[in-house]
Design goal:
The chain is mainly α and 161 residues long. The chain has helices spanning 4-40, 46-70, 80-111, 116-138; strands at 141-143, 151-153. Helices cover 73% and strands 4% of the residues. The longest helix has 37 residues, at 4-40. Residues 15-60 form the DUF6533 domain.
Length: 161
């Protein structure tokens, strides 16, 4: 049975996800003019694709995260009922992180004058960051393991066996 603390933790996660989505929409609204002027009217290349990934993939991920937070997922009888939904949501978050990492790496590479030594040092760090994002995003967040029950935040919920 869920405790009051578990319910409060779940509610905090829901509100945090919704607040993050609100900030994302606000940022989009105040920078849309600059985005059109500096990105969308120029020729397309790797930097533009990385920007589009880091800019628009979070919308898909935020919408899916907000939906999964609002929809009660407690005590699904089968894990497969929400696995596909979570896989698509995770993919949107991964694409966002990969685009952001790529943009950061590209900007810093240009700042350092196109140094190959810089790439030799920074590419492994970027790869580690991407792997950490994948590992942390796919790991469930467990709350309240009482009497064989497991409550999982933002993942498929199921009874522990």
């Amino acid at each position: 049975m869920a405790t009051v603390a578990d319910a409060l933790a779940l509610q905090i996660v829901k509100y945090t996800n919704l607040a993050a989505a609100g900030l994302l929409v606000f940022d989009y609204c105040i920078t849309l003019g600059d985005e059109i002027r500096w990105i969308l009217r120029r020729s397309w290349g790797v930097p533009a694709v990385m920007f589009i990934l880091s800019r628009y993939a979070p919308f898909i991920g935020a919408i899916m995260t907000a939906y999964s937070g609002v929809k009660s997922q407690l005590f699904y009888t089968e894990v497969t009922q929400c696995t596909t939904f979570n896989d698509v949501s995770n993919a949107a978050h991964f694409m966002s992180a990969i685009g952001s990492e790529g943009l950061m790496l590209l900007r810093t590479y240009i700042f350092w004058g196109g140094s190959r030594k810089f790439l030799a040092v920074m590419l492994p760090f970027s790869l580690v960051a991407i792997i950490l994002v994948v590992v942390l995003d796919t790991a469930p967040i467990l709350f309240g393991t009482q009497k064989g029950e497991v409550f999982v935040i933002a993942r498929c919920c199921r009874r522990a066996s």
